[in-house]
Design brief:
Catalyzes the reduction of 1-pyrroline-5-carboxylate (PCA) to L-proline. Belongs to the pyrroline-5-carboxylate reductase family. The chain is elongated, with a radius of gyration of 21 Å. The protein folds into two domains: 177 residues, 3-Layer(aba) Sandwich (Rossmann fold), CATH 3.40.50; 84 residues, ProC C-terminal domain-like (ProC C-terminal domain-like fold, Orthogonal Bundle). With 294 residues, it is an alpha/beta fold. Helix content is 57%, strand content 12%. An eight-stranded mixed β-sheet has the order 3-2-1-4-5-6-7-8, sandwiched between helices. The chain starts with 9 loop residues before the first helix and ends with a helix. β2, α3 and β3 form a beta-alpha-beta unit. The protein is built from 13 helices and eight strands. α8 crosses α13 and α9 packs across α10. Bound molecules: NADPH dihydro-nicotinamide-adenine-dinucleotide phosphate and (2S)-3,4-dihydro-2H-pyrrole-2-carboxylic acid. (2S)-3,4-dihydro-2H-pyrrole-2-carboxylic acid binds next to α8. The site of NADPH dihydro-nicotinamide-adenine-dinucleotide phosphate has 27 residues, from α2 and α5.
Length: 294
């Protein structure tokens, strides 16, 4: 693969790559949908398979025109023929999947993992050979091109492969290269992050309904408020704290609301939640590492 890329036509180079998605759940779909929507992949070169859910494969085939298979030999062909293999199964299924892959993976095949907690070292252990590995932590907003992805590389990833990986994740949102040791933090902040915002939105909609808004009005007002707030931070370049102060009139409604939030230790709760998510990512990585030793 190293001869494929010049910096000027990286996008067309990526389009010529054969991609295999080992796992066909939410995250695999988010990446495929994002890459296709941005014209950065050719559906005829994408293969996807899962463990047992045939109906899910039919859905993906009809939605994206990708190749799918529930036949083991065909799945092995997809893996063997791929330039890039995406590991998109749950952490608990990773060790078994990687052991299977170790039997035939070739040194030039790029492995891209999105699995929370799973370290490059454990992937290498399970593959039992040096391999170019890109460890990432994206999020589901990649589906609409607004993902946020942290990326780390194994030592054997060459410059072309770095560019390929970076361009793929930049095409489906923003991507930042971080030290591998920080990927668990990225998981806590942005990997799980969309769920925190949805959780907040659920509560805002519920409050609106309880206070008499129709469900539709509560939902629409909440969506626009979150969208507007995120855009304001980005468009103005001001800090969230400054923008918050501009909403908060002395002794007004916002101050009253924020005081209630603080009495429930809202900020502290969010900080502790993100620390716990990141700690949990490390625990999940250790669990896979232990099963790799067996
Ligand atoms: N969801 C999210 O927001 C994010 C998830 N991640 C990471 O992405 C990974 C996938 O998560 P997500 O997409 O949510 O999970 P899903 O449960 O939606 O999908 C997992 C997929 O893996 C398949 N699978 C499991 N074992 C095997 C196997 N041995 N061979 C082939 N396919 C297999 C499952 O098949 P079947 O259904 O047939 O069992 C399913 O298609 C996780 O490791 C997670 O940490 C990272 C960032 C964000
Ligand atoms: O909840 C999880 O474990 C995965 C990782 C990041 C988002 N979802």
């Amino acid at each position: 693969m190293s001869s494929l890329i010049s910096s000027t036509d990286i996008q067309s180079s990526i389009r010529s790559l054969r991609l295999c998605f080992y796992g066909a759940g939410s995250m695999a779909e988010a990446i495929v949908r994002g890459l296709l929507a941005r014209g950065l992949a050719d559906s005829s070169l994408i293969g996807m398979f899962n463990r047992s859910n045939a109906q899910r494969l039919e859905e993906l085939e009809s939605r994206y025109n990708v190749s799918v298979s529930n036949v083991e030999e065909e799945q092995l062909d997809m893996l063997q023929d791929a330039d890039v293999i995406f590991l998109v199964m749950k952490p608990k299924d990773a060790a078994e999947a990687l052991r299977k892959l170790s039997a035939f993976i070739k040194p030039n095949q790029l492995v891209v993992s999105v699995i929370a907690g799973l370290s490059i070292r454990t992937i290498e252990q399970l593959l039992e050979q040096p391999q170019p590995i890109v460890r990432t932590m994206p999020n589901t907003s990649s589906t609409i091109g607004l993902g946020a992805t942290g990326i780390s590389f194994s030592q054997s990833v060459n410059d072309d492969q770095r560019q390929i990986a970076l361009a793929m994740f930049e095409a489906i949102g923003m991507a930042t290269i971080v030290e591998e040791s920080l990927l668990d933090v990225v998981t806590g902040v942005s990997g799980s992050g969309p769920a925190y915002i949805y959780y907040m939105m659920e509560a805002m909609v519920e409050a609106g309904k309880q206070l008499g808004l129709t469900p539709e009005a509560a939902r629409e007002m909440t969506i626009q408020t979150v969208l507007g707030a995120a855009h304001m931070v980005k468009a103005t370049g001001e800090t969230p704290a400054d923008l918050r102060r501009k909403v908060t009139s002395p002794n007004g409604t916002t101050q009253a609301a924020l005081e209630v939030m603080e009495s429930y230790r809202f900020s502290e709760g969010v900080i502790q939640a993100i620390k716990r998510a990141s700690e949990r990512a490390a625990e999940m990585g250790e669990e896979i590492e232990r099963s790799a030793m067996k």
